[in-house]
Specification:
By secondary structure, the chain is α/β, with parallel strands linked by helices. The chain contains seven helices and 21 strands.
Amino acid sequence: MQRIVIVGGGFAGLWSAVGAARRRGELGISAAELEIALVNRDAFHAIRVRNYEADLSKVRVALDAVLDPIGVRHIAGNVTDIDLDGQEVVVTTPQGREVIPYDRLVMAAGSEVAKPHIPGLADHAFSVDTFDEATRLDRHIAGLRSTPAAGGPTTVLVVGAGLTGVETACEMPARLRAALPQGSVSRVILADHASHIGSTMGEAAIPVIREALDALGIEQRTGVRVVAVDAAGATLDTGEHIAAGTIVWTAGMHASGLTALFPVERDTFGRLQVDQCLRVQGVAHVFAAGDVAWLLVDGVHPSVMSCQHARPMGRFAGHNVVCDSSATRCCRCRSTGMSRCSSSDHGAPSIPMAGSAGSWRWGRRPSRPRN
């Protein structure tokens, strides 16, 4: 029996599993001949892009509910090592250490928020990077009811004005109104090192974001960097100290640290370079998709670390890893549409998105593999 191991159960990993199971069925290969196993740190597919929301009850999906019907094995545990020469994945599970041999590997371990070594950041800041972190922030906001009616404790400072930062900031006024006693005074501040908010989202997005932030009364601090965080707030590189009882860090991402196990060149985000079939360059029998993969989607512009690219890349990676294991022709990952809509009942903007160089068109339907 051959085995395909998929590392990660996020958008890229889940769609890799679906794509692989579908191609296995199309080729008439049984699960007894070709096992597909997905390793994820817990039992859930996390809809990570919604972790900023107040209601977290629908941001996770049980993986077994998706994988069992399509004949994909789910292994809950943390991948701690990958032996590329021996073709083995080492996983720490609740039962102990498990070594899983593979014939083909799909790296879809995703990314995590980039937290620089800023004094006090690890101790005093929140994030919405994972479900657990989002839950911790939710508990903190709920506890603000016992704070004074005005001042630093009821101020939220969101650091990082990318998509996650804008969404998080736009959600905060309503979350504070719900958490604080009626009549309480609160502030939301969105800060970024760039000269203006939404600097990486394309020119069309900027006025939409600005209008929404102004309508919600969200203050903007641009061209600044946080140099220290403490229990009472954050200090900027200008010397100003912003009194804030809640600091949410959303300033950038980097690829999973597992990519450092690969003896190949990585980009500035730590991503592995892949070819048009999603094969990792310089490593045999390994594919990659999503935030760990660096793909020139149109020969010029690189893929973006987003669920909009992770899903189609996952479909192609899953399809192609089965083709590769069965000596059939792989499909080139075609250019996929890039869009993102930041939406909320509380006034967050719907943003027409551009890609890394403004090359992605709103509303384009992603392609699927076809042999």
